[in-house]
Amino acid sequence: MRDALLNPNRALIGDLLSVRPNWGVSTRRLTRRYTGPCMNVRRSSDNATRDIYFAGDALDVEAIRSFAGAGGSAFVVTWYDQFASAASALTQATAGTQPLILNAGVLEILGNRAQSPGVRGFGAQTLIAATPPFTASTEFTQSIVHVNRNSGTASHVILNSSTRIGTYVPYLTTFYFDFGGTGSPNRINVASTVTTGVSAAFVTRNSVVQNVKEIRVNGVQAISGLGTSATLNQVQLFANGATEYADSAMGEVLLFNASLAPDQLTLLNVNQKIFYGL
C-alpha cells in the first residue's frame, strides 16, 4: 500500500480504495479495469474528431497536439466515464459550448502543475451526463481536482441544480455544497481559501447515517453540517443550468454512492496530492 501511494504510476485511485467510485472522469487513468479512451476531442482546423487514449496512466497530450496540428486548438466533445458505462459519459454536441483542452497550441493545465492537463470551461461551456450513475442517495461523496481561473465568475457547479445537488468551488468567493436544497440543513458554505490559479482537491460528503455533511479542501475539513437526502438526475460540469458558468479547469471528478470513511478520505487525498502535485 505504501509503495502504491508513493508511486503515482501504480496508484490508480479506483483500485486503491475499498469503495470503488460509481462514476469518474479524469485526465489520468483511474482504474486498471478501464481500457477505453480518456476523451474525444474536436480540432479547430476542420472540426474532425478523434478519441484520445492514455500514454501510460496519463492523458496522451502529444496525441492531442499531433491531431490538432501546429497552433491548433482542441475542444472536448466527450469525457468518458471510467466506471459505469458509455451512457454516463460527459458530452457536448454543440461546438460553441465545448470546453478546451488545447488552446492555440497551448495545453490547458491545472494551475501550478504544468504537466497536468485540465479540461477548461471559460464562457458558456458545459459538459453533461444525462444518465447519472445513481439516482437517489443519502450516502454520497464527491471529489474534484480543480483550479479556479477567475474569482469573479459566478459559479463552479459540478452536479445538477434542479434537485439541488451542487458543488460550487467557489461561487464568487464562497464554497457551497447543496444536498437537497439551499436552506439549512441542506446547504453548507464557507469562505473560499484557495488562491485563483492554484490547483486544489475538494471533497464534498453527505451521510444521513452519520448525520454529517462536509466540505474538505486539500484534506482539511473546511465546514460541516447535518446529513440530508437528495436525488441526482444529471451530472453537469462548469455550469448551473444555462445561467451561471465557470472559468476553471478540471482534472478529475469522482462520485461515490457512499460516505467514505476517514481512512479512505485520507488515502484519496494523499493519492491526489502525489499525482497532481498539490
Quote the beta fraction. 35-45%
Q: What are the segments in which pLDDT stays under 50 over at least 5 consecutive residues?
A: 1-9
Q: Give the CATH class.
A: Mainly Beta
Q: Tell me the overall shape.
A: globular
Percent of residues in helices comes to: 10-25%
- Return the structural class: mainly beta
CATH level-3 fold name: Jelly Rolls
State mean pLDDT (0 to 100 scale).
88
Quantity of strands, as a count: 26
CATH architecture: Sandwich
Q: Strand count, sense and closure of the main sheet? A: 7 strands, antiparallel
What are the secondary-structure elements, in order, as H or E? Answer: HHEEEEEHEEEEEEEEEEEEEEEEEEEEEH
Distance between the termini: 20 Å
**Helix count, per DSSP?**
4
Rounded to an integer, what's the Rg over CA atoms? 17 Å
Domain count: the total is: 1
